[in-house]
Design goal:
Layout (H helix, E strand, L loop, with lengths): L16 H15 L3 H9 L18 E2 L14 H4 L14 H5 L9 E6 L5 E4 H6 L4 E8 L4 E11 H8 L7 E6 L19 E5 H4 L5 E6 L2 E2 L9 E3 L12 E7 L6 H5 L23 E4 L10 E2 L7 H4 L13
Parallel strand pairs: 1-4, 2-11, 5-12
Antiparallel strand pairs: 2-3, 4-5, 5-8, 6-7, 6-11, 8-9, 8-10, 12-13
Bound molecules: ligand MTE.
Ligand MTE binds next to loops.
Length: 326
């Protein structure tokens, strides 16, 4: 007769140490009552209501209490945030995504979880929307090209989905894969990038509460050109790390290259943290132009280390040579 065994779980079944540590940190922050001060700051903001065109279904969240989740910078106009985009699957010009993304089919949609996880699975959009409470986060997004925006996103921490995925102890990186369907995305027919578009984060970066899985912006579901129906927003990194229209999360051990890393490894480092002290090989990263502040005499803003999120994320890179790991 077969014996029932109740010995300790295999190492592969133990919660990843990074996931475990982050869960504890998260609980501490919530218990510490960071919410009060953020809500007080929120009350003082100018209303964003006028920025909403009201064409898309509403998607609202409660104001996030994650430290650093709500910048006091003035939000970019909705019209600017939705008409000046990078989404190479729809073309390489800033105006292409708004022009051509209407062919993207965002429903049905699902994200597949695969690689070094307890059990691979697929989660449909309805389940993704219900996975964790929706929060509003107002983040700066700084593009490597030298422009920036401030956008009120709606979503929840990527850590919620990673927690559900149950990565194995051996998983060190998470690869985020965007849809690449030439039928819906005219840019995919060109060889300008190596499709599908992928981005990669170290697992502890992906677990940081500020790494956001976004489903909406300005209180509505995401417009297609902004990465509908679900995208990443990593506010302390250059915008290209924030993969749009995600269909897969793959947990891996050796560090994979991302799309931009494959396209131009000397220009797009793996870390891609916003760092005014490390120039892009072809231009300075010391300053930025805030979209919508385009007056004749408007000065460029100084770019801040980690895009201003150093107090929250600096610790992730303690002891690293950020000139080499750019
Ligand atoms: N994701 C996909 N799938 N394809 C892309 O071309 N461009 C990246 C990033 N995510 C890109 C992508 C770049 S370069 C930037 S700056 C941001 O998306 C732009 O996001 P936004 O449209 O919200 O401004």
């Amino acid at each position: 007769m077969a014996m029932l065994r109740f010995d300790s779980p295999a190492a592969s079944e133990i919660t990843h140490p990074v996931v475990y540590a982050a869960r504890r940190q998260w609980l501490k922050q919530v218990a510490g009552g960071a919410a009060g001060s953020v809500l007080a700051a929120w009350a003082g903001r100018e209303a964003l209501a006028t920025e909403k065109p009201g064409k898309r279904p509403a998607l609202v969240g409660t104001s996030s209490s994650v430290p650093g989740a709500i910048t006091m910078d003035k939000a970019t106009r909705y019209e600017d945030a939705t008409s000046y985009n990078n989404f190479y699957e729809f073309g390489t010009r800033k105006s292409d995504p708004a022009r051509y993304a209407d062919t993207l089919v965002t429903d049905p949609w699902a994200i597949e979880i695969e690689g070094l996880v307890k059990r691979p699975f697929k989660l449909g959009l309805d389940d993704l929307l219900k996975l964790s409470p929706m929060q509003e986060r107002i983040y700066r997004l700084r593009c490597v090209e030298g422009w920036s925006m401030v956008i009120p996103w709606v979503g929840y921490s990527l850590s919620a989905l990673i927690g559900r995925a149950e990565p194995l102890g051996s998983a060190k990186f998470v690869e985020l894969v965007s849809l690449a369907d030439a039928q819906q995305m005219p840019g995919v027919r060109s060889s300008v990038l190596d499709w599908p578009y992928t981005e990669v984060l170290r697992l502890d970066e992906a677990m940081h509460p500020l790494a956001l899985l976004a489903f909406g912006m300005y209180g509505e579901v995401l417009p297609k050109q902004n990465g509908a129906p679900v995208r990443l927003v990593v506010p302390w990194k250059y915008g290209f790390k924030s993969a749009k229209s995600i269909v897969k999360l793959r947990f891996v051990e050796p560090q994979p290259r991302s799309t931009w890393g494959r396209a131009a490894p000397t220009e797009y480092g793996f870390y891609a943290n916003v760092n005014p002290n490390v120039d892009h090989p072809r231009w300075s990263q010391a300053t930025e132009r805030r979209i919508g502040e385009d007056g004749l005499f408007t000065r460029r803003r100084k770019t801040l280390m980690f895009n201003g999120y150093e107090p929250q994320v600096g610790q992730l890179y303690a002891g690293m040579d950020l000139q080499r790991h750019f």
